[in-house]
Design brief:
Layout: H1 3-15, H2 25-34, E1 48-54, H3 59-63, E2 89-90, E3 96-97, E4 100-101, H4 119-126, H5 134-137, E5 153-154, H6 161-169, E6 171-173, H7 184-193, E7 197-200, E8 203-206, H8 223-229, E9 234-238, H9 251-255, H10 275-297, H11 303-329, H12 332-336, H13 340-349, E10 362-369, E11 372-379, H14 385-392, E12 399-403, H15 418-430, H16 433-436, E13 439-445, E14 469-471, E15 481-482, H17 484-489, E16 500-501, E17 510-513, E18 521-523, H18 530-544, H19 555-560, H20 587-594, H21 608-616, E19 639-646, E20 651-658, E21 670-681, E22 687-697, E23 702-708, E24 716-722, E25 728-734
Parallel strand pairs: 1-12, 1-13, 4-5, 6-18, 9-12, 14-22
Antiparallel strand pairs: 2-3, 6-17, 7-8, 10-11, 13-17, 15-16, 19-20, 20-23, 21-22, 21-24, 24-25
Helix pairs in contact: 2-6, 2-15, 7-18, 10-11
């Protein structure tokens, strides 16, 4: 037995509760801190970028209590139409709840499944920026838990010690949003391709739902194809792909990639040439004819039975016809006719652990929880076998993507074993100092599931609808919208169809681990899933003198979202301070044992006195962050938002700008949101409380936007403007106020070289 195999089996024992994780979780991080690159080196001195996108967790849900981030102590939190602070959400019964802790070890929460996170439920929770519909839109689908405000549940350091340790060791990004306000696969499409829209039957089709994707079907360009064309080495690692099925019992949850490799859905990668898929087709061709014959030979006992028999025959015949047609297209001979370039795409996209004899099987571990006998299923093999092998043999490519099985994905449909997977990847990377000192490891999440986050995502105005905001010239807003008429034409049920911007979606965690992002920093630049593609563009183009550009990324996204480079700083040669890692952590054992514990009970409807106290002082809510601050990454924002009363137009005007005086070409644009906390009536007579307007200003540009005073209740204008990194302005007054010109300017003595 090899050392790597023995080591993996040893760690698999942890899943059975046979031992704690005291030697696993801290070790990889401590080792990472002890490995130094050359002083003065930068992220461009890296040679490997390793990327893992996990599943379905919001930022507040994971890191709302982490010190020094925009979490539960946020002084810039919005208010709701009913004047409550954003933390206080009200259900259809009029009951109001606040965020509450989900105890991962002493309750069965991690075994209770996921919450609604469809396109409709996401849009409905957002509620045009009013942000007051979370409990209604995210009501648990499981009837047993339907009355619980689970969407407001969050974890703490005690629940997620490894996640918090990573944040304390490296850099956490607290303004990282989903690309789309929807579920998993569309967000992953942005992560690997930069978009989700294309022309379909002459109209724009937004692949905004999971079922808009199917194996080997889509054909718009993907980012790995650009790497391949430019000679940049890359691989996508997983234990086994999803296409082909054939799993039994718990095998799929422990062994397949959970559909997290988006490349399976794109035609150029030819996923259906997989051995598993061809075998499944052949099995249908071999067995279905006999099943059909037996049904046809039966003598039905009634007309109803005859009708059911006829339907069953038709379904099996359709399946047989499809299997034969598919097998004629996807077979070994056809694969042999692919070009070498096509074969290379297929091989790189679907790197599986076929070199490990146990990669398609599971085993059972037995142990005792106190006096009770327990048993848990675990993989027989090493789910990171090929990745581990490539790292150990010095064959790690320039860009690596990873997709773990469902049980290691952090998805709420499975117990939260994912910290082990992240730890193991970091453990593999840090065992060889020569590898780690030239590696960047990015961990993020595709979407928030149904879990609440208090920061409304930045959105985009609709140039077809006056009164929704404004963008800089050259930004096409149409490509970022889903039209109701198109949805209905394309077969989306009316109750599920939504006309709304595609995104952004809600905040999700992102951790960036590398020698150039350590130090327990927070980076508060606006990022979304295309930011990782933009980072790869920057990294590859500067390091290898290439000219890769992902044309799929819209002008709006490039204007408002950064390329992750702000999260890095040159290595200064200093020694890190020791971190307070937990000594004894048996969380994997405890997670399995938690399956047999009670449901969460740490919530209760707030009384009127509690609600009024929170309205008066939002810090009255029980959810609070750890004490202290953390270093903040320097950001290239130079933002302005100055308001003036326009006497001629009887309107209040805000001048918004993203300057370039301090940072030159390194400066960035920004998204901005303005909302009116009081009642506002537009030119069409529509009246709203907490009406929202969205803006996007490119670097070096200025936007002006005016609100007629007659639209505000009693002629009293009141506007709040939110931007990146807590940028905030509030304007309040009437036409009778003195004419003042108040501006917030940057200090005139700031030198660009200091920025």
């Amino acid at each position: 037995m090899s050392d790597s195999r023995r080591e993996f089996l040893k760690k698999s024992m942890l899943l059975s509760g046979a031992a704690g994780l005291s030697s696993v979780l801290p070790a990889s991080i401590q080792r990472a801190f002890a490995i130094d690159p050359a002083p003065g080196s930068t992220f461009l001195d890296a040679e490997h970028v390793v990327i893992l996108m996990q599943e379905n967790r919001s930022f507040d849900h994971c890191f709302g209590t982490l010190q020094g981030v925009r979490g539960f102590n946020d002084p810039r939190a919005i208010s709701l139409p009913d004047k409550k602070p954003v933390w206080l959400q009200t259900n259809e019964k009029g009951e109001t709840y606040a965020p509450f802790r989900l105890d991962m070890m002493d309750t069965k929460i991690t075994w209770m499944g996921s919450l609604p996170h469809s396109r409709a439920s996401q849009v409905d929770a957002y509620n045009e920026g009013k942000y007051d519909n979370w409990l209604i839109a995210k009501r648990p689908g499981n009837k047993m838990y339907a009355s619980m405000p689970l969407t407001l549940g969050y974890y703490t350091r005690e629940d997620l010690p490894f996640n918090y340790a990573m944040a304390d060791a490296f850099t956490v990004c607290d303004q990282n949003f989903c690309s789309a306000m929807t579920s998993t696969t569309p967000n992953r499409s942005f992560f690997w391709t930069g978009k989700i829209t294309h022309q379909w039957d002459g109209i724009e089709k937004a692949h905004i739902r999971n079922d808009d994707f199917s194996y080997a079907k889509l054909d718009w360009g993907t980012f790995p194809e650009q790497l391949e064309k430019n000679g940049i080495d890359w691989k996508f690692y997983q234990n086994e792909i999803s296409c082909g099925g054939g799993w039994k019992g718990e095998e799929r949850a422990w062994l397949a990639n959970f559909g997290c490799n988006l490349l399976e859905f794109f035609a150029p990668y030819h996923v259906k040439f997989s051995e598993r898929y061809i075998a499944s087709l052949q099995a249908q061709v071999d067995t279905l004819p006999d099943e059909i014959n037996k049904l046809q030979e039966e003598s039905p006992s009634s007309e109803d039975a005859a009708a059911k028999n006829k339907t069953a025959v038709a379904k099996k015949q359709a399946a047989l016809d499809n299997a034969r047609a598919e097998l004629a297209k996807w077979n070994k001979d056809a694969y042999g006719k692919l070009t070498e370039a096509q074969k290379k795409l297929n091989e790189r996209a679907f790197v599986v652990n076929s070199g490990d004899a146990g990669y398609r099987s599971v085993t059972t571990m037995k142990y005792k929880d106190g006096g009770k006998a327990r048993e848990v299923t675990v993989p027989s093999g090493d789910i990171l076998h090929q990745f581990r092998k490539d790292v150990n043999e010095g064959k790690l490519p320039t860009v690596s993507w990873l997709a773990g099985p469902q049980n290691f994905s952090d998805h709420p449909s499975a117990p939260w074993y994912g910290a082990y997977y992240v730890s193991e990847v970091l453990d593999i990377l840090t065992k060889n100092p020569e590898v780690w000192k030239k590696t960047i490891f990015i961990v993020t999440y595709d979407e928030n599931d149904g879990y609440y986050d208090h920061v409304p995502p930045f959105s985009i105005p609709d140039n077809n609808k006056p009164g929704t905001g404004k963008v800089s010239a050259g930004i096409d807003t149409e490509v970022e919208h889903v039209r109701l008429a198109n949805e209905l034409k394309q077969g989306v049920p009316e109750k599920q169809a939504r006309e709304a911007p595609i995104g952004l979606g809600f905040r999700v965690p992102m951790l960036i681990a590398s020698p150039w992002s350590r130090g327990g920093k927070v980076c508060s630049q606006v990022f979304e899933h295309t930011s990782t593609l933009q980072f790869l563009e920057t990294f590859v183009n500067k390091k290898y003198d290439k000219n890769i550009h992902c044309d799929n990324i819209s002008a709006w996204r490039r204007a408002i979202s950064g390329d992750l480079t702000a999260a890095f700083s040159p290595f200064d040669g200093s020694s890190p301070k020791p971190l307070p890692f937990l000594d004894r952590d048996k969380f994997v054992q405890d997670i399995y044992n938690a399956k047999f514990k009670a449901e969460p009970a740490g919530f209760s409807a707030l009384g009127d006195d509690e609600i009024q106290a929170a309205i008066k002082d939002p810090s009255a809510i029980k959810a609070r962050q750890e004490k202290g601050t953390r270093p903040s990454a320097a950001l290239p924002y130079e933002l302005y938002a100055n308001g003036q009363w326009n006497k001629e137009q009887q309107a209040f005007t805000i001048n918004m700008a993203a300057g370039m005086q301090l940072f030159g070409e390194k400066a960035v644009g920004a998204p901005l949101t303005v909302y009116a906390p009081q009642s506002f009536t537009d030119e069409d007579g529509r009246t709203d409380v907490c009406r929202n307007w969205s803006f996007a200003v490119k670097k070096g540009d200025t936007l002006d936007y005016s609100w007629p005073v007659k639209g505000f209740e009693h002629g009293k204008y009141h506007l709040r403007l939110h931007g990146p990194n807590g940028f905030f302005r509030e304007f309040k007054g009437t036409a009778k106020d003195p004419v003042l010109d108040l501006r917030c300017e940057y200090p005139p003595d700031v030198k660009r070289s200091q920025a």
